[in-house]
């Protein structure tokens, strides 16, 4: 039975669903911008969504906000400022609240970075993906390599905390090319890097027709090792499967996801997870931006079943290289470990197979477990 004495930390995710062009690998809820962006109407819809959701989170302080997309930097600094002040007027934000926004490295966006800072954003995440002009073309990106560099140089002048997203395992990519990308990246003084292996998602153009020249599994494993080694040399340690940071610069918002904290999601297609004294709910908003703006969002959500809690928890927690203290299970599920025989059984299996450390005080994947993370997580499926 779920019984919370105290609820976990709460974050806020805000989804802005438009992009200039849809990238062929991307399965995020992003839509090509057809006409002028309905910025103000969308911010108003977000505020309505937030107000309708307030009863779910009355009185709870918010530790972080993430404005993601899509391409949030298509919104003007004025609208981002309005959005943040509308949120501030309705939610109790911690004094040191982390406010991250995603930005693409186009010239048009870079000119707005200072405005985003003044609007209240205190952490910028720039989707660089690559510094190689040919790779950027294959990925369907609308920026070039010089714009990628300029965006990061400019971002670190304005923001204390900057993340760059990089992808590897790109069509035709060699280890030498990846080494060159990483060397460029580490010279820029970033506090955080997210480095993702390109995956072929169903329902994307790459998923339907994969590009030629994708590196094979052996090369991909070498690439992953190179990323870890090269970033560590530069003072950026791996703390999650794809996330690297300087000490103390971990993304608080994502850490809250990975430690199974709560989050309210507002915006088209946004997901949320919110705990109450005796249940945990998942919420999801309408995906289509037009339908979303016209309303009809259901703020109630569906309870997570007790059977699926181990998988939901481990799907997140085992991504962290240091895992989580075992006490985090009861803090975020409202149940003790002993109350869930299935969890105990599967923990035993994972440890016997050498995929998790045999430590009663921590849930942590071994190096092998991190390599085989999908298999390890699947062990906890109900
Ligand atoms: C919400 S997305 C996009 C942020 C921003 N619009 C951009 O494209 O730069 C966050 C990140 O996920 C990564 N990503 C998206 N699709 C991916 C895929 N199929 N494989 C690997 N990484 C992916 C990219 O690095 C991207 O920057
Ligand atoms: S710009 Fe970012 S969110 Fe938009 S389609 Fe490309 S990867 Fe997806």
Record keyword descriptors for this entry.
382 residues, alpha/beta, TIM Barrel, Arc Repressor Mutant, subunit A, 2 domains, nine-stranded mixed β-sheet, globular, binds S-adenosylmethionine, binds iron/sulfur cluster
Give a verbal description of the structure:
Helix content is 39%, strand content 21%. By secondary structure, it is an alpha/beta fold. α7 links the parallel β7 (161-168) and β8. α1 packs parallel to α2 and α7 (175-186) runs parallel beside α9. It is globular. The two termini are 17 Å apart. The model has no long low-confidence stretch (mean pLDDT 96). Iron/sulfur cluster binds at residues 19, 22-23, 26, 28, 30, 69-71, 104, 127.
Global mean pLDDT: 96
- Please report the first level of CATH classification, the CATH class of the largest domain: Alpha Beta
Task: Please identify the structural class as seen in this structure.
Answer: alpha/beta
Annotated CATH architecture of the largest domain: Alpha-Beta Barrel
**What profile does the largest beta sheet have?**
9 strands, mixed
Rg value: 21 Å
Beta strand %? 15-25%
Task: Give the termini distance in whole angstroms.
Answer: 17 Å
What is the CATH superfamily label of the largest domain?
A: Aldolase class I
Low-confidence spans? none
Describe how the helices and strands are arranged.
Blueprint: E1 10-16, E2 18-19, E3 31-32, H1 39-57, E4 62-69, H2 77-90, E5 93-103, H3 107-110, H4 113-118, E6 123-129, H5 133-138, H6 145-158, E7 161-168, H7 175-186, E8 192-197, H8 205-208, H9 217-233, E9 237-240, E10 243-245, H10 252-258, E11 262-267, E12 271-276, E13 279-284, H11 289-294, E14 302-303, H12 309-317, E15 324-325, H13 327-333, H14 341-352, E16 362-363, H15 367-371, H16 373-378
Parallel strand pairs: 1-4, 1-11, 2-3, 4-5, 5-6, 6-7, 7-8
Antiparallel strand pairs: 8-10, 9-10, 12-13, 13-14, 15-16
The structure holds S-adenosylmethionine and iron/sulfur cluster.
